[in-house]
Amino acid sequence: MLRIVLILAAAINLWVFLVALNKIKRDHKFYDNVNLFLVYVFGIFVWGDALILSPFFIAASIILYIINNAYLTLGVFSAYHFLRQGFEVVYWFLQQFSMKQEFRPPDRFFKFLKTDELHIIYQLLNFYKTVIWLVVMIISFFYFFKSL
Q: Is the CB of residue 23 less than 8 Å from the CB of residue 32?
């Protein structure tokens, strides 16, 4: 059952990524809202989120499919949602008090995005690093205490 859910998650996210890429490149729909299923299941709020989060879910689903451990799968997706919601709270809090800046971060892969859209991409890329290191930390502590 776990493997079927992971295959579905990867397939759905591949489709979401392709739709997001098309909407953003063709119609410039970076900030357009997605449907509620994507919001609640994957934490994808706008098509710009899908451009970065869908590959993460595809990779995570494939890796977790290979590992085939329900507890680890729950741990990874729980950590993701915990951090995603936490960062969204901080993001929206800071958004209330921010002033628009025209600084454009390096954009080797995202030249088709506007400056403020690129800021969101950088926020999400750094978020991935946080999730990866949190999972590595949890697994490391688990195996450490198991070996005692």
A: yes
Q: Model-level pTM?
A: 0.72
Angle ∠(38,43,47) on CA atoms, nearest 5 = 60
Q: Which domain holds residue 21?
A: 2-147
- Number of domains into which the chain is organized: 1
For every one of its 148 residues, what pLDDT tens digit does the chain have, with 9 covering 90 and above?
Answer: 889 999 999 999 999 999 999 999 998 888 888 888 887 788 888 899 999 999 999 999 999 999 888 888 888 888 888 888 888 777 766 765 676 666 666 677 888 888 777 777 877 877 888 888 899 889 888 877 786 6
